[in-house]
Amino acid sequence: MSYSVVVLASGTGSLAQALIEAAQRGATGPASLAALGVDRPCPALDMAKTAGLATFAVYPADFPSRADWDQGLAKAVAVFQPDLVVSAGFMRVLGPAFLERFGDRTINTHPALLPNFPGAHAVRDALAAGVTTTGCTAHQVDAGVDTGPIIAQRAVPIEKGDTEATLHERIKVQERLMLIEVVAGLACGTIRLPGR
Questions:
Q1: Is 121 known to be catalytic?
Q2: CA gap 46, 37 in Å, rounded
Q3: What does CATH list as the number for 3-188?
Q4: Each residue of 153-173: pLDDT tens digit?
Q5: pTM for this one?
Q6: What's phi and psi for 26, nearest 5 deg?
């Protein structure tokens, strides 16, 4: 039984790279990566092409409105008929048209222990708050910002002298491992998403 995954990325593609390598070595169970999509020119696109993965780009500037872009993204993803969509460092909030088609099967990772520190500056916010532990979360995507049902979490202690960069690097290590486990669990049926 195959389980098709589309990955969305906006940046360096370190999460996507981890998924690609895991799929190549069989660590994602029956899950296989069908394509990687981006919303801007970025290293993730080149990395996916190098790995022989199908790619697509849906740039907001090519659409008259945010709603049109959202519909365009949904259409581009639908081409691959995914069982799962993974937002892997995709820096856009997914809108109603996308969520209507794929919300029940879209997941995201976030570099904090949600519901604490949602949003784009989670690592900086955790340091500023003076907490001793942060981490990462895999969650189902909904219409809010990092508000969907939590699937998995991993804790990462904050060490004395940590900077945003050093802490984020340690979180990323756990985030990649967690994402691979979650994708494998969803593909194997040991993890279920609400509404599926």
A1: no
A2: 11
A3: 3.40.50.170
A4: 999 999 999 999 999 999 999
A5: 0.95
A6: 85, 15
